[in-house]
Structures are given as structure tokens and as C-alpha cells.
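Example complex used in Figure S2.
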Amino acid sequence: MNVTNVATTPAREVNYAPRVFDLATTPLRDLNQALHQIADGADEPAWEVLNPKGSHAVAAGVDQPITIEVRGSVGYYCGGMNSKGNITVHGSAGPGVGENMMSGSIVVKGDASQYAGATGRGGLLVIEGNASSRCGISMKGIDIVVCGNVGHMSAFMAQSGNLVVLGDAGDALGDSIYEARLFVRGNVKSLGADCIKKEMRPEHLAKLRELLDRAGVKGVKPEEFTRYGSARTLYNFNIDNADAY
Amino acid sequence: MTYHNPPTTPRRSATFDEYTMSEIRRAAATGIYDIRGAGAKRKLPHFDDLLFLGASISRYPLEGYREKCETSVTLGARHATKPIELKIPITIAGMSFGSLSGPAKEALGRGATIAGTSTTTGDGGMTEEERGHSKTLVYQYLPSRYGMNLRDLRRADAIEIVVGQGAKPGGGGMLLGQKISDRVAEMRTLPKGIDQRSACRHPDWTGPDDLEIKILELREITDWEKPIYVKIGGARPYYDTALAVKAGADVVVLDGMQGGTAATQEVFIEHVGQPTLACIRPAVKALQDLGMHRKVQLVVSGGIRNGADVAKALALGADVVSIGTAALIALGDNDPRWEEEYQKLGTTAGAYDDWHEGKDPAGITTQDPELMKRVDPVAAGRRLANYLKVMTLEAQTIARACGKNHVHNLEPEDLCALTIEAAAMAGVPLAGTSWIPGQGAF
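Predicted assembly (687 residues):
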């Protein structure tokens, strides 16, 4: 499978060197504060972070349309609450990458730990490797594309948005799901409570095509996926459904 | 001669009392547990079981109205560059838009602002009503993350990570379909009219080590400006307080089992968690053991009703108290003026707690546009401000009588207890004795 990353393309032409922050010599706080102090319309679209070495909260709370290349692996909550930023992690990401993301994009070149994209409200999160358990937990509008597999309880209580998995999904996919849409190309070990297989209609194929294109995934057809979503039987409490939980 | 056996008086069971039997019949008929609002209604050891000793020969009182008794408090100076400054040691607890109407949230903001204190959002995001009308607003960070967004996080004055609440330590939120209006549904990203049971556990962290990293992230996002509170239910106050402090909290909010909820199972409200009175001393002990008492502020809530309760909580070591149910009553909740309508709902003023049904005659716990018109946010806000000022004045009156020039100078030595239980829980002597039961490890 050939994955090229359109999301990392800068929003506009850059004709000068990116601002470089080396976390081996500069405190994390300085990096994040510098990112937050970018004024609207400022000409600082390209940033580079060196030696993250598993640091937590790298590029958390970005709210400008900038491009950030993180050269290495990060700890918890990289790109947390990201708004408009385009972040690429050239390594793997710890728990909660892109948690509560508002918009923009985050691409993880390696694997991601638990709760990738948790409660995300918008934007695109691409995991080029595998994502661990609870990927897309409680997602609220984000689009997540995982090129490998996802672990158990992925899309738990997922409210809105799309989760695309090119590989397999673990146990209890989409448990207690609301209105999010799940597309899995490989096998699903088991479905969670109230999550069912659904018909792939033309609008779903079109949406999936768009998501794959945005994520830069080539050589994969939407028709290879199965769609899953809510049976909506648990939306209003009924005592006779109590054993479903 | 005929002899009649004397009849015995019909005897009701103490175990199967009237309420218990009605609940069995209700469960049998409906097949669902009882859900209601408010906090524990059973009789519990509480602040009423404590008394102040007042001044005597060994300590002299301060003159009321002449000698100053300060009430101001600063929260969050441990790590935050913009700590919270309050004029009074009483705040408004987190209550969600969704469970409360927009006008009720606005009234809370107005009242708190007049009185010089803070309000708190809830499990439904931040509304313009409360941000606009609250000078100081604490933004709750809840497991559901409904309405959570970067802009609101940055325009909050403090962030409160909610781990638990007194009415239901270990339980999540609940908002039933009747109250999921279009506006509420949009803020929560949920379909209209569904029963919404929000998560009890945060989606992206578990345990004290993760919490430390979560706090770091929130500080990084807000550039270390805003105080980070951690709210816990009254479950294991010593350890939870210690772990919150260890994780980096600026403020610990501790909610005992009398603390209210918008909607939770009755069995949860009445049978899980500890009374507020039992929670304060262990939490204070944890702060003292870590050398953090008065550095990390302790906010206590759950059944605070008057200035005496405020003074007693502070004397036991709290820095601030917080009110929810009492604030709603000040706005007009359960007011006898709506008695006729309470009767139609099968209840009576003072006992109405079906807040989840959205039919509140007082217009507070509802999303019904007609009912919520009954709350005039300006007038209700004024009532709340009056009430907050009265409570403060009452607490000052007691503090002066104990010879204190700041309400924070009240101390356990100013108190005695009326019952053995209260003496043990509060760690103060039983009245007329020097006996403090239950001393030893918490």
C-alpha cells in the first residue's frame, strides 16, 4: 500500500526556513507558548520540532493554520485540542494523540497508543501504522484513518465523525455507539453493544473515497470496506435491554 | 359473661416503612430504578451536630461591625500565573446547562458576580449566558467532554477536572430524553430526545500518573495561566486528595454525599459515598501531611446551607465552600408559590426532585421555553447575591465571636460536637468532654 501524505502539505508557499525548536535544549513550555503566540495572519507557517523523545503535550493547543514537523516519537497528548494546525509526527505517538482535536490535521508516521483522537470534534487524524485500544473513543465529529489495525473498544461511545480502518479491528468495536460511522477493511474480532453491520450506500462510498484521498491512501477501493454503526436500540432506556450492557 | 380479646394496635415495620414499600411497588410496576435529582435525603451526621465554643476568658472576641473580619481568598497560586481572587469563601458549584435552563445559569452568574465569587459550568459545555454574566467562571473538564473546545478552555478563568461528585462517586452523568432539546443536543453532539448517559471515566486517562500528564497538557494548552482544580466525590478523601496534589492540582474540590446531582439513581445517591462532615478532616490531613495545607486550596461542598455551615467547614480546614442545591433554592427552586403545580406532579414544594423530567414549575431544571420564562435572571441573581451575602455575614459573626480577624483563622479548637459520631468524623471533642473518638489512622 502506498501512502503519501497530502495533509502535511503547507497551506501556502514557504520560501524561508522553518522555525526550529530543539526540545533537547529548549523547554516544552517555550515551544507551546511560541505556538500559541502566533498572531492571526502572521507569516510563520512552517515549524519543526527536534528531539521530542517522548515528551508529552507537544504542540498542544495550536490554533493557527501552521505546519509542524515533529522529528521523532512523542508521549501523551501530542496535538491535543489542535485547531487548524497541520502536525506530522515522524515517529510513533503515545496515548491520546489529537485528543479533542477541533480541526486541522495530525499524521502519525508510526504507531499510536491508546485513545488516539479521543473526543475529537473535527479535522483529520491519520495513523499510518497501527492504533491501540479505544481509538476514537467518544469521538464527536473527527475523521480518523488508521492504515493498520485498531485495538479493542475502538469507537466506544462514538458520537459523530468517521473512523476508517484499513486493517483489522479488535474486540467490541463501536460499543454503545451513537451516530459515528465506522468503516473497516479487514476483520472485526467482535462488535460491541448496539453496534451492527450496515449497508454501504453510494453516499458512504463517496464519503469513504473522500476520506482515503484526504489521508493520501492510494491503491485501496471503498468497496473493500464494511460499514458499521448504531442499531439505535439503546437510545432510550428499556429494562429488558439491561443485559446488553 | 362474654370476654373480648383486647386488640393490639396495628404495627408498622421499621424495616418495611411506608417509603420502602412504595418504592417496591413502584419498581414492580415500572421495571426501572428510581431516578431523581438532589443529594442524599436521609438523616446524616452533619454540621448541625457541631457547635462553636465562642470567646471566653482565654480568648477575646472582635467587635461586630467595627473590627474587621476578612473573607477574601486566593485560589490556585501554586502553579497558575493568574490565580482566582474571591471576595467571599463561598462559590457556586458546577451545574450543567441542560440540567438547568439558560435563564437559571445566567442568574447564577449574575448573583455570584455581585457577591464577588465564581460560578462553574457543568456536564454540557459553556454557554454565553454564564460566560457573559460570570466575572469568574470555572470550566469543568468532564469525562463526557460535551461542548469541550479550545476557545472556551482559554476564556475560562480556571479549569476543574471532574473525577467524581458526592451524589455519585463512580457514576457518570445522566440527562434523559425529555431534556435533550435542540440546543442541548447540539452542544452535546447527540441526537435530540435520546437518553444521555455520560461516561463515568475519562476517555483519555486513568489513574494518578495519567492525571499528572493530563494536568500538564491542560497547563501547556493554557500557558500555565489558569488554576487547575480537581474535583473528587467523598469516597476516599485522604488518598484522593493526596493523589490530586501529587498529580499537580492547584485546588482540590471535595463533594460529600449531600451534594446534589441533576439526575442519578436513588440507590446511588443514598448508598454510595461519605457524608461531607466525614470527608473534610481526612482531606485536610492529606494536605497537611504533604505540607500543602493553604497552598493547595480545599473547596468543600455537599449540604452547605448557611453561614454556620460555612464557618464550620472552614474551621475544619477548608479554604472555601461551594453551594449547588442551596443556590437553586435561592433562585426559586421548590418555592411554595408553585405548590398547586407541584401537587399536580404528585409531589409538594420542598420535596420536588424529579429534575430530570424537565417539568420544573419554578423554571430552573427545565428546557421548556414556557417554564423557563418564570426565571427572571436579574431578580433571581439578586436573590442569590443576597443569600451569599447573608451567609458571609453569618460566618463573619461566628468568626468574630471566636476572636478571628479572618474566617480562615477559625480552627477545630473552636468547635465541639453534639454526638459521638460527629465528634469522631470532625475530630473535635464531644461537648462537655475532652474525648475525641476515632483518633488514629484514617
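Chain A touches chain B at residues 28-29, 32-33, 36, 56-57, 60-61, 63, 75-77, 80-81, 83, 95-96, 99-100, 102, 114-115, 118-119, 121, 134, 137-138, 140-141, 156-157, 159-160, 178-179, 235-237, 239-240 (CB under 8 Å). The longest strand of chain A covers residues 140-146.
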